[in-house]
Amino acid sequence: MIVLILAIFTALFFPGIIVRVKSILSGRKGPGLMQPWKNILLLFRKGSVISKTTSFIFRIAPVIYLSTILVSLLLLPFPGLPSLFDFTADFILLAYLLALGKFFFIIGAMDTGSSFEGMGANREALYSLLAEPAFFILFGTLALLTGHLSMHSIFNYFQMSGYDSVIIGIIAVYILIQIGMIENSRMPVDDPKTHLELTMIHEVMVLDHSGFDLALIQTGTALKFALYGTLIANILIPVSWEIPGRIAVYLLIQVIFATIIGILESFRARKKLMKNPQFIATLSSIALVAFIISLLMISKLIQ
Amino acid sequence: MKSIETGNNPSSVRLTNIPVLDYEEFFSQVDELMQVESNHCLNYFAVSFDDHYRFICCIGCDEKHTIILFSHEQPKTKEIRLKSITPIHFQFHVFEREIAENFGIVFTGHPWLKPVRYAFDRASTGMVMDNYPFFSIDSEELHEVGVGPVHAGIIEPGHFRFICNGEKVLHLEIQLGYQHRGIERLFVEKPLLIQKAILSESIAGDTAIGHSLCHTGLIEVLGGLDSIDSLSAERIIALEFERIAVHIGDTAALCTDIGYQFGQVVNEALRTIIINTTQLWCGNRFGKGLIRAGGTHYPLTKETLIKMKGNLDEVMERYLQITERIFSMSSVLGRFETIGKVTLKQALRIGAVGMAARSSGLKRDIRWSHPFGMYNKNEFDPVTLQKGDVWSRAMLRKQEVERSVAVIHDLIKLLHGDVTVSPPVNEPKLQPGSFAISLTEGWRGEICHTAITDKEGRIIHYKVKDPSFHNWMALALAVRGQEISDFPLCNKSFNLSYCGNDL
Questions:
Q1: What is the ipTM of this complex?
Q2: Fewer CB near the terminus (10 Å): N or C of chain A?
């Protein structure tokens, strides 16, 4: 449960930190840390406008999207502490719970019948599909290395000690940051600030959502950041530390994660849409490198 | 005599001096002139008189620096059918469409005789926006994407209809007309010169100086007003200031569209300094009220000149730094290069003008080909780039800013803060029975205003042509075979005017 509480706590500040970092880097003061949440609360108080052409799917999609993320958070362990449901191969459930939420999100967008949302859904589906192998190869590597299959035990036994596991750790953190950026529709794959319908991916899919529904989606997005931040924290934080120390480092890692996103988004341009699949496929190949390294490490152990 | 040629810009001729040909002759005359690559159509329009239409064609000759005028007349009959010039000289397509829309004249053989802007007094009121005849392809694989006229961003209304194969654009059709305000009619109806001047500033909000300068040139040539050098220099400074401001603003907007925040914010800040300098000068950031016939209300004072110089130097230093960064950054170049290509051949065929032409390697710049005001004194050398892609159009902006700053510095040297310039003339007596044409190189390209006066010297016909009128076609061609997600970037790289087209 501690993860859920901490993740919600981080999610409160996460979007604010990104916006603030980007503002400061562009020479502006920027809004307060809580401004994104004030906007979301405002939306929660509003009703939704629902197009007559849509069916029930459009209405349940935001609810399912948010709930899958909340349940996924329950699956996540805190460094050294098991999650609420700790079982073998729980990371597969984690991945597909998120995919389920995304699936409903996509068909919800298709439900509107708008040609933009169809295009956005199409792109989003492609990118999630391409990012999936990277995620599984990464967890496969960690499982292979530690010989365990549940997230709690994988992270418990995976410690960054010795240069070989440091390599795997760095690769894992890199891949998780990138997948986090892709899944949350940030740069370089998507641009959350764009106002151009034809270039949007995630943003175009929420064009028809309004009021309460939109607030649910934005809450989900903020929580998703915390989710990937938690995975990163699990890799980085040694379980031997005291619990308060681990919590402090956990929060620090989340803040650093948000700051990195802000910095990355400030100083580079977005990729050409056609180049995105290539970019995402690179992540899988990097994950494969980690996999091969761990194979080498294990054969070393056997010898 | 088949045509009348004038080397002045702006210039006025007696309407009766413009030769009237019959249509066959007119047609072969156009054909003959258009064989030369450096000639292009400045304007081609019809004027309705009591019992006949008069078609006036203005061809600009870039190499010889002249304007060629000729016309033909057509008695008003029930149905007028004329052979279309478009199939052999494509750049006439939009002019013929406009004539067809306004007077119901049918151009046989025209491939694309669709409404241009749904003018209020168009010939057929049955043509409305809702039944615009879009080009469509019946196919299982292809899909259509319609964007606008209401957009997610703050841009003017316009409808874009894409025919796509997946993410790839096969065809783009642009339908405009949502901004039609009847500008040309208002120019005739409004009696006072001040009203006309204000109107000219509102043709396109981002080209207030360009259009008002063009209009003022027209009034001055019709009114026989000579402009003194210092006034002329001030006007050119204003025009170049507008160019610098918009080019820097567009550099920022291009960065926005590719999501490069740093480039965006720096350029936006620089643009603010430039337009604030214009405000310091005349009280309006876009230079409204600055350019009036025969004189000025806002002569450049010594203090303004000093401030202007300081601001320009500051902006230039920072702009060069940021553009160096932009154009050396791989993620930016990846978005700019080879995207939205317009070839030289295409540019020639569609009669592209201004930046769109120059970025495709076509040297077409009124400041060089038909110099006006102080450009007459020393020859202006326009910037041209060859590639015709988004990178070229972005790079062209950077280089034109440098060129403009140099022009301004040269002109500032001539001025001494002399504030004895006379105030504008109120109501000059316009030359009666004349036709006048005025060309200006606005930041977007060639602006062309023409007017016809009656026996009492009243304006009875006024025609405005914004460079966008030619160049929208360039955008439609640029996105062919591109990804649909690159369309906004291509669109921004041209930054064409909707209201300048719709009038």
A1: 0.84
A2: C
Residue B21 tokens read as 């040909």
B408-447 per-position pLDDT tens digit: 988 888 887 666 778 888 888 888 889 999 999 999 999 9
Nearest to A271 among B147, B153, B334 (CB): B334
Provide the domain count of chain A.
1
What pLDDT score was predicted for residue A302?
A: 54
Same CATH topology for B4-131 and B213-462: the answer is no
pLDDT of residue A146: 85
Tell me which fold the domain B213-462 belongs to.
Cytochrome-c3 Hydrogenase; chain B (1.10.645)
Residues from chain A that touch B258, judged by Cβ atoms under 8 A, are: 269-270
Instruction: Kindly state the DSSP code that residue B227 receives in the 8-state scheme.
Output: P
In angstroms, the CA A11 to CA A72 distance is 14
How far is A192 from A202, CA to CA, in rounded Å? 8
Q: Give me the architecture of the B4-131 domain, per CATH.
A: 2-Layer Sandwich (3.30)
| Tally of CB atoms within 10 A around B314 | 12
pLDDT digits (tens, 9 = 90+) for B158-213: 899 999 888 889 999 998 888 899 899 999 998 888 899 999 999 998 999 999 99
Q: Report the residue of chain A nearest B266, measured CA to CA.
A: A26
Is there a contact between B486 and A22 if contact means CB atoms under 8 Å apart?
A: no
Is the bond preceding residue B75 a cis peptide, omega within 30 degrees?
no
User: Of A27, A191, A195, which is closest to B265 when you measure between CB atoms?
Assistant: A27
B331, B339, B488: residue with CB nearest A198: B488
pTM of the complete model: 0.90
Chain B residues in contact with A28 by the CB 8 A cut-off are 265
- Give residue A37's domain range: 2-298
* Ranges of residues in chain B whose predicted pLDDT is under 70: 417-419
CA nearest to B165 within chain A:
A119
Spell out which residues of chain A touch residue B265, defining contact as CB-CB under 8 Å: 26-28
* CB burial string A171-188: b at 16+ within 10 A, e below: bbbbbbbbbbbbbbbbbb
Give the 3-state secondary structure of residue B94: helix
Residue A81 CA to residue A3 CA, distance in Å, equals 9
Q: Which of B154, B261, B332 to mutate to test the interface with A (most CBs of A within 10 A)?
A: B261
Give residue B226's region: left, alpha or beta (phi > 0; psi -120 to 50). beta
**Cβ contact B429:B457 at 8 Å:** yes
For chain B, say whether A202 makes contact (Cβ under 8 Å).
no
- Residue among B144, B257, B329 minimizing CB distance to A196: B257
Tokens representing residue B91 in the block: 């750049």
Decide if B236 contacts B228 (C-beta within 8 A).
no
| A303 domain residue, yes or no | no
Task: Indicate whether A247 belongs to any domain.
Answer: yes
Kindly determine whether residue B332 and residue A269, on different chains, have CB atoms separated by under 8 Å. Answer: yes
3-state secondary structure of B450: strand
